[in-house]
Design brief:
iron; 2 domains; eight-stranded mixed beta sheet; TIM Barrel; Urease, subunit C, domain 1; iron ion binding; imidazolonepropionase activity; EC 3.5.2.7; zinc ion binding; alpha/beta
Length: about 425
């Protein structure tokens, strides 16, 4: 495939490095460009004036369109059974999370439903969601377990993720999040569940190669600091690098624990201060912000502007899940991040491409436009500028999505284009 007359080719970074501070606002761009794809990878690109030959290939005229790397969504809970819109209505009526949980809602609700759902049905619904997010430009995604809360059901979730990875072109990373909540069957005996995670779940996960990472919901009332460290260290013994749900509800040392355990990322960060920013600045742990959850729960947004101005880099991710962020739509997430967290459009795109790829350890293959990288690309509809993408927050500006050199989504032609075809 040869893309020609690209209005702007975005994200032509020369290094596969996590972007920090002022570098986050730098989005290398080539105007009036071409890009050639061969064997599913980016072969070459540059200004149209340098395009010398045209091979036997499909030619796509990208006139007035932007081309950018496909999104890398480094934090989702995409495998789940059933939605929780009734709890959404309860929240609108004024019920608190604690009151909803007391009624059997929250994570326990999702766990009960998943435990009653077959692996085949779980795969079918997750496949639909995966295809849904690909249509809005996602080309790589991390998916967590955590709604099983039994040995059999956590393994069921991870096996579904493994099957999704085998059946789809999209790059998928798998995270074991057995420490998402204390199952209702073991309320009052958290220690028994921690032993179950370490002694019964982790050995099977390692033996079957079911996960890349281990995660813990580190929060007061869920898994405290000492318990989180114990679970993460057990995961490391089985070859799983830590990720961490940190500082969503409370600021009590979770970020510093993640840094100390060399976590790949600490995610959420709605409640952080100067000490957490300083700890992250001196580390290789990636701060990953999930503003979709803050939006849906009407919480304070993570302080992205403060973090970037202090020299940190950030990744952005959807947190796609049935309870607190029931959307995997990254074009909307980009707009939300710019509008509510004052991120520049260039910062938002970098956070969702190269920095997101780093938060999944796929930056050598994805996240930027570079020779030899996988041809995971988004073509916009005709738009006036880069800033239009987050500005037009309700518009579907994604025209075509290419994964591994293959078109996986293309908009229907407009009325004018249909008339031209006639």
């Amino acid at each position: 495939m040869l893309l020609i007359n690209i209005r702007q080719l975005l994200g032509t970074h020369t290094a596969n490095q996590f972007l920090r501070g002022e570098a986050m606002a730098q989005l290398p761009t080539i105007p009036n460009a071409y890009l050639r794809i061969h064997d599913g990878r980016i072969a070459d690109f540059g200004p149209m004036s340098e395009l010398r030959d045209q091979l036997d290939e499909e030619v796509v005229d990208a006139l007035d369109r932007l081309v950018l790397p496909a999104w890398c969504d480094s934090h989702t809970h995409l495998v789940f059974a059933g939605c929780r819109e009734s709890e959404f209505v309860d929240k609108l009526k004024g019920l608190t999370y604690a009151e909803i949980a007391a009624r059997g809602g929250g994570i326990q609700n999702s766990a009960r439903t998943l435990q009653q759902t077959s692996e085949a049905e779980l795969y079918r619904s997750a496949k639909e969601r995966l295809q849904e997010i690909m249509r809005t430009g996602t080309g790589a995604v991390e998916i967590k377990s955590g709604y099983g809360l039994t040995v059999a059901d956590e393994l069921k979730m991870l096996r579904v993720i493994k099957r999704l990875r085998a059946d789809h072109e999209i790059t998928i990373k798998s995270t074991f999040l057995g420490a998402h909540a204390i199952p209702s069957r073991l309320q009052g005996d958290k220690e028994a569940y921690i032993r179950e995670i370490i002694e019964d779940m982790l050995p099977v996960i390692a033996r079957e190669g079911l996960a890349d990472y281990i995660d813990v919901f580190c929060e007061k009332g869920f898994f405290e600091l000492r318990e989180t460290r114990r679970i993460l260290q057990a995961g490391k013994r089985f070859g799983l690098r830590p990720k961490l749900h940190a500082n969503q509800l409370n600021n009590f040392g979770a970020v510093q624990l993640g840094v100390d355990e060399n976590a790949l990322s600490v995610d959420h960060l709605e409640n952080i201060g100067k000490a957490e920013i300083a700890s992250l600045r001196d580390s290789n742990t990636i701060p990953t912000l999930l503003p979709g959850a803050a939006f849906f729960l009407r919480m304070n947004y993570p302080p992205a502007r403060q973090m970037i101005d202090a020299g940190l880099g950030v990744a952005l991710a959807t947190d796609y899940n049935p309870g607190s962020a029931p959307s995997g739509n990254i074009p909307y997430l980009l707009a939300l991040s710019c509008i509510q967290m004052r991120m520049l459009p260039e910062e938002g795109i970098n956070a969702l491409t190269l920095n997101g790829a780093c938060a999944m350890e796929v930056q050598d293959e994805l996240g930027s436009i570079a020779p030899g990288k996988k041809a995971n690309l988004i073509l916009s509809k005709p738009v006036p500028s880069l800033a239009y993408l987050p500005y037009a927050f309700g518009n579907n500006w994604v025209d075509r999505v290419i994964i591994n050199g293959k078109t996986v989504h293309q908009s229907y032609p407009s009325y004018a284009e249909v008339e031209d075809l006639r």
